Amino acid sequence: MSQYYQTYYTTGEFAKLCHTTKETLFHYDQLGLLKPDLVKENGYRYYLSKQYFEYDFIKVLQEAKMSLKEIQLFMKERNSQNFVNILSEKNQELENEKKKIQRMQYRIQQAIHMTEYGMKTKHMEPFFEECKEEHLLTISLPGRQMTDKEMMTYISEHLEYCHQNHLTEELPIGSIVYKNQYLKGSYNENCYYVRIEKKRKDDNYWLKPKGLYGTILHEGFYDTIHESVCKLLDFIEKEGYQVIGDMYEYEIHNHFTSQDIYKYLIQISIPVEKR
């Protein structure tokens, strides 16, 4: 027998060696995960040096998101193939978790960017800006004034679809008003949308084209948005441009930054070209 890994430790000494507590070792003993190598007649419990690696193995499996129950089952039928199988499964779970974290980081970064954009950009003053193309996922709306209950149903349905399909949606939700509608003075939304990372084969996919947009940051809620739309359309006309597409509304500041809906900041953008 090798002379190595044969030193005995009391429960307290072994707990210190493993950087854990005696209570944890007692719990592992009760579960049958890690029992003392020796229990004397007086009830004193002793662990061997080599059992440190048993404890470390359990710790590694826990860090791989295995429950103690899963570890217990694995330890009963421990072999190379089972080890590969369980770690492969846990590796895939960690990969899924990593993607989930990356999606959340993206959402947070975009929320920071848009909030800071709203803080440093003048409000209620129209301007032109060059915009990159954006990939949107939409849900069609009735194109009429909706009740609060109807509105929330559409929002909930759309965001749940994004969650179920693991799409990287941003925190705010945007809306689209068709050109033939807002030019008639009607600003009821025709679609809700969220931004996604790339083009997607989906009936609800929508490409917001790159180009020059007339833009204004509206202070207030949607029931007063007509004032800013009229100001923006007048500005576009006076500057010698014409509108060439649908209107996009996007909440820059909303319930994340204010408890008062009339302190919201809504970006209104319309694609334009020189007359």
Automatic annotation (TrEMBL):
Pfam families: MerR_1 (PF13411)
Entry's Gene Ontology molecular function annotations: DNA binding; DNA-binding transcription factor activity
Domain of life: Bacteria
Keyword DNA-binding tagged: yes
UniProt keywords, alphabetically: Coiled coil, DNA-binding
HTH merR-type domain segment(s): 8-77
Coiled coil: 84-114
Protein name as it appears in the record: HTH merR-type domain-containing protein
Organism in which the protein naturally occurs: Coprobacillus cateniformis
